[in-house]
Amino acid sequence: MGNNGAGVAERDAQRVFSALDSFRIEVPSWGFANTGTRFGKFVQGGAATTIEEKFSDAAQVNALTGASPTVALHVLWDLPNGKADVAAIQALEKKYGMRSGSINPNLFQSAEYKYGSIANPSAEIRGIALKHLLDSAEIGRELGSKDLSLWIADGSNYPGTQSIRKRIGWMEEVLGAVHAALGEDQRMLIEYKPFEPAFYHTDIADWGMALELVRRCGPKAKVLVDTGHHPPSTNIEQIVTWLLHVKELGGFHFNDRKYADDDLTLGSIDPYQVFRIFHEILSAGERDRADVAFMIDQSHNLKGKVEAMVQTVVTAQELYAKAALIDQARLAELQQECRLVEAEECFRDTFWHDVRPVVREWRVARGLPGEPLKALAESGYVEKITRERANRNARSVSSYV
Ligand code: RM4
Ligand code: MN
Ligand code: MN
Q1: If you average pLDDT over residues 348-363, what whole number do you get?
Q2: Ligand 1 contacts CB of residue 318 (under 6 A)
Q3: pTM of the model
């Protein structure tokens, strides 16, 4: 960018305004609930334990950022009675001015899934998993939610203990049946993850496996990239570019990581990576990016839940705005001519440009608080929910709910 003339500033402001006007990122209901590690759980007085509290917190994040009007739901945790809970969710949507986002079935918590869900050697258990997936798809249809978001925890812990080949076939069968049951406007997103909870093989371990399954299922199936689900050093933006190229990228679960699936705040460890991912999406063109859902998949064990979620959305907005400022035409020219240092500087200089003042202008222009975290602190919301929820939280024992 270098040149800081008024014309450039005006052009930059326009780019940031139009990028932020269309930028939406979904917040997860489970990000407001008490969570822990396998070593312990530190209960927070203000954590949400009911679905109404989760809606209330999500609405607060949206009111402060203007970017998260939908909340992702986990069927088992948020609709424990399945379809019978749809009416209650609809009432909450109305009350809090929020909409239900992606529907996340749960195929990893019940005792019967010890040896897997859709890849379990038992036909009976695969049937239970399929039924849950079909019910979840119906819930999605009733709520008018577009994406059924599938994370399959299946795998094995020791070599030779399971037939990887047979399990592929079983997964194809179940996922195909789910695809066939999807409504006109519904999609199913298939998420991959290299390990955890399984530590030898995971049935959908990487984007190649997810992509192949998606292709076999049909046009309503797409790949979901969780940024925390790769071995260290993986070039995630390259995967993103390929998935965009073959038109099979459905969405993201954003979070940051240092070691494994850490679910840390987006951009807290490597903001440059998030910038690079956003660049690939923005440079793909409007039509190709239209159907890519941005979702947050984070759970904060130590940070305050609502504060961390506001911080995450703000970070996402800033990094998206930065990526929107890249001079695409200039960069393409420099790349074409192999002017390497100039190309890198064009890219890097944009990353270092401080977009916070113009993002702040956008917030004020849209009637939002200029500084969402400060506004949250001044609103007294966290103190209020801590007072109201502290008693119940003191008794809370279960994870994620
Ligand atoms: C997994 C994966 C899923 C999330 C669960 C709770 O690691 O990221 O998306 O639903 O965690
Ligand atoms: Mn995820
Ligand atoms: Mn994860």
Answers
A1: 98
A2: no
A3: 0.96
